[in-house]
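FIELD: query
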Amino acid sequence: MKRSLPAFRFINVFKSVFPLLRILILFLLIICPETNAQDVFNSVGPAPISEMKISAQETTPFAVGTRAFLQLSISPNVQFAKSFMESCSVTYIGGPFPLTSIGGLVFVSGKVYTWNQSSPYQFWQVDTVTGVNTLIFNITGVPLAALTGICWDGSSLFGVATNSLSSWIFRLNAVTGVCTLIGTPSAACSYAVFIEGRQFAWSSLFSPDAVTDNIYRWNKTTGTATLIGPAGFNVTIGEDASFDGNICYWVADSSLRKWDTTGNISVLCNYSTIAKGIACVTYPPPLGVIHLFEVPITYILSQNYPNPFNPVTTIKYGLPKFGKTSLIVYDILGRVVTKLVDNEFKDAGTYEVQWDASNFSSGIYLYTLESGSYKETKKMVVIK
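FIELD: result
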């Protein structure tokens, strides 16, 4: 039996609009929010920057995540240098200069600083082009004999001093050089060899202990040191470290070590001389972090954007506290497609990652964020 003309035309029209209807249906499935969705970032806002004479408008001569500045011991002097990340091949900057009881390095808003570990406690700026040191101020109120570490959290300088029996952290006023003590001395971390914080979240400060060979986390409010675990090697005095994102690069004697997001510490290479300081180039923020101080008050998993997408989309998430974190993409049958964040240690803060679905077919995918006891899943659509 022959189709009537109207029916034939209806079928042709349906065939032509069916792909558009399918896309519309998929889109409607995505935009329907789950009951526990949190698509708007709640933040305490940026931390206030106060008492600083160091300009945040300075730029660095190197790309983020590729270079580090070094301070090398060439007896009886000190040599400033630069290096590609994870390489022990260095380029000297300027000539050697004398510095008593050499400290480490700290990178602050495009500038590099160093200090004396023993009296007179002095804070110096190192010119990253000429290697020349300029005295900024004398540090007063250092609570214990050895000033072993200084770090910058984006709004304040923090330091740690030790007498080998206990260690004490403090906040350092970057205008007056006065130390404000935090809490009381900690015998748990008896010989802190430096102090560092995970960049761009800064909910925690860390120190290795040269007596116990353990790593401790400092509470910035109470000054309490809490054991994280063993360093896995002999920690000695005169070491220094610097975080590049969530990766810590650690110089110990003549070796360059890497403390990664899974908590493993490995030796990358060895210098031809003893390295006394390292400062990773970490301004502006590296890919994967949105703002220095955007720390949410709750866990957040935002809807990916764009959505639907082809082939790349961005996923933002926020963590209110430090913890092991995973962000995994699944297909509609629940099979793992890719692990964007694979059980990594992450500090409190907001992050973003990208997923490139070039090698995956059109359809609905799920992405799940897990951190501590928190778990949330959202849908996204690939359309090609």
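FIELD: remark
Residues 1-8, 25-65, 283-293 have pLDDT under 50 and may be disordered.
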